[in-house]
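Human:
Class, as today's exercise, you are to examine the entry below, and be ready to discuss the fold:
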Amino acid sequence: MRRQLQQEILDMLARGSSLEDACDRICEHAERLAAGVLCSIVTVDRDGLLHPLAGPTIAKTYSNALDGIPIGPDVGSCGTAAHFRRPIAVTDIFADPLWIPYRSLADILAKEHGVKACWSSPILRSDGRVLGAFGFYYKDNRGPTPEERMIVAEYLDLCSLVLEREEVKADNQRLAFFDNLTGFGNRANFLKTLEAAIDGGAGPLSVLLIDIDHLGRVNDAFGHATGDRLILEVGQTVARIAAPVATFRVDADEFAVLIENRSTELSAVSAEILRAIENRTPRRNEHLLPVSVTCGGAISEPSQPPDVPTFLQHANLALHHAKRTARGGFVLYSDDLAGAIANRFRVLQTVTSALAEDRIEAHYQPIVSLATQEIVGLEALCRIRLDGGQILSAGAFAEALQDLSMGHLLTDRMLEQVARDIRYWLDLGMSFQYVSVNVSMADFNQGNLCERIKSVFAHHRTPLKHVVLEVTETVYMDEKDGKVAQAIEELRREGLLVALDDFGTGYASLTHLLNFPVDIIKIDKTFIDRMSDGPGAVIVKALLDMSIGLGTRIVAEGVETEDQADRLRRLGCPYVQGYLFGRPVDRDRTTEALRADTFALASKAGQKA
């Protein structure tokens, strides 16, 4: 009997029958073998709550009233049997202490079926965990007979097999479609839900992607356990605002929200999420970690339903653009945005090809002593030589220089050429103090900038005292975890000088000078262009006075006219750089300029002698 019934039940499940139908069949078989007995099967979830599963002859009012009751040491027959994981027989459900708190359930059984007693046995998983309970209800005040014990023993094995198989199946389903950490739907679930929503075509759809900024830094600094807590916190915040069923974790640091029939709410939802993350408070006994999220989204109208890959591409493009240009904010996809991103992609392709084909060149612009016209230094500027021989200036591929995945590759190529060229000029006996090289956030994100510089300059036997690293204010503005400050401190200990480029164009520049000591300040061209009006000259003079007090050198950038040079000379500016004193040129032409400058200095020295 047992094998025949087991095969029947497994066949039912294989054909797609529900677990409830299969277990109803088990109850029916048991009731035929144990005449006059009513049979039920209840499950116990992972939180220890009872849920009715099967019992074709048991009143629905009883099953509904039982649903959600926690198991315990005095919870009727089923709840107590599940708690202690042993059979419990109650011969009088109206007098036994186990049933007194559940008199209403006993009343339903008596009214609907004339039940007076109940015997329940736990259904255990192979590892011993309780899965549910198998109950016999009697219309007499009695317990189980020996024959009934044998019957139930067989059915318990079958129920354990069936429930464990279904639990494993459910676990596999959960692993396939739900994120293990947060409990939200995963990427596969999101794609499936999005496809169904697009196929339904009932109304406008919006997809919002939420990326946790710098999660990797949190993991590195505080450990993955802290990172996981942060992911949970962000996910719960997103779900509270957008609803759990609409929230999905689609990547390690990324959530997605699907908004149906409410396209106008996309910006509002993103704004609320950004505000909630910004204003979050720490849990008790926990420090508040610095965290922000960046959002990108796309909207689809029913009149032009896109395919899923295109729709997601739009949302991803918006998110990537937000991470580059509006980190901590929200960007909505548009056709104009697509054009800008396509142009960026072309730029990255151009740079990738130039790197592969060794067409990256260093061109040098002189930095001059305004008093003596002597070349004291050079700024190395990145250039690309196109196939036709034309030279592409950095402005045409500025995005690649800032790109976190590519910027450090360009810097490495520049460092290699600068170290080689300085060694070449030193061997020729050229007179100059330093060559400056621009570095970006991409270089600091690599985490090994000092080692990279030391390695390449040691390879060419080039002293580090001839190198200045130029860092823009935007790098300082992006600083959140001390990485830039630590790297700069390490570089200066090695003897390199650090220049703050484009000074005055960023936010809270004076604060940067307090937090990030530098050796050279470069006044941005914006102020030099406005020296002819009162405020421009006043600001330049104030910056010159400040540099004296701080003990730093100062260089005025973008000097293009004699008038600007004269004004700077009168203000006491020591060093200048700009087209008036020389445009960026390749190594050979720079060598000619250095040779001429060295010859002029030697002539002056001879005249003095």
In short: The radius of gyration is 37 Å. The first strand starts at residue 38 and ends at 44. Confidence is low (pLDDT under 50) at residues 605-609.
